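2024-03-11 09:14:02 INFO worker-7 job=invfold-0412 stage=load source=structure_tokens
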């Protein structure tokens, strides 16, 4: 019985490691294309879909980065992709390209802060209107103050968990300059 338990744990460990690496190709390609750090894209994929490319959200989000239709269409328009259908976001390459494009847009939006990543993540999760409620006073430019001011516990947890996973991936996943 102990051997079966140990074997089961080893199989689960192997499978979860494989799953976590299964989308590295599309993540690296999208990060390279849009100039964002691959470790950040991978951390978002980890949180949003657990690396399951066919994941579907309750509000119609699709794929690895759980893209809403408007964000995906914005990418398709910018890339001059005619006849784009939201279902195309179930393809890992399409999804990570559209997601990295959108993430780059958000990071640029908050470039005047000490660290645009928490702002971009909160916007990605809760939307710009909610973010604007939270980034007043010191929180307008200080990311630590901003995180404390996030008004939705779920969004605060989302931002913190991705930041932790981002740091984890930065230690072993190629940095942006390594993939360009």
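2024-03-11 09:14:09 INFO worker-7 stage=emit residues=180
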């Amino acid at each position: 019985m102990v051997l079966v338990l140990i074997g089961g744990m080893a199989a689960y460990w192997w499978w979860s490691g494989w799953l976590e690496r299964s989308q590295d190709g599309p993540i690296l390609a999208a990060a390279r294309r849009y100039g964002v750090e691959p470790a950040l894209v991978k951390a978002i994929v980890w949180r949003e879909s657990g690396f399951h490319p066919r994941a579907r959200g309750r509000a119609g989000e699709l794929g690895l980065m759980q893209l809403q239709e408007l964000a995906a269409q914005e990418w398709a328009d910018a890339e001059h992709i005619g006849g784009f259908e939201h279902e195309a976001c179930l393809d890992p390459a399409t999804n990570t390209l559209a997601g990295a494009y959108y993430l780059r847009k958000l990071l640029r939006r908050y470039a005047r802060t000490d660290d645009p990543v928490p702002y971009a993540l909160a916007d990605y999760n809760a939307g710009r209107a909610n973010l604007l409620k939270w980034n007043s006073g010191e929180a307008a430019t200080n990311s630590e103050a901003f995180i404390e001011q996030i008004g939705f516990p779920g969004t605060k947890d989302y931002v913190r968990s991705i930041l932790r996973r981002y740091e984890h991936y930065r230690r072993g996943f190629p940095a942006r300059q390594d993939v360009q």
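2024-03-11 09:14:09 INFO worker-7 stage=report msg="The longest helix spans residues 2-21."
2024-03-11 09:14:10 INFO worker-7 job finished
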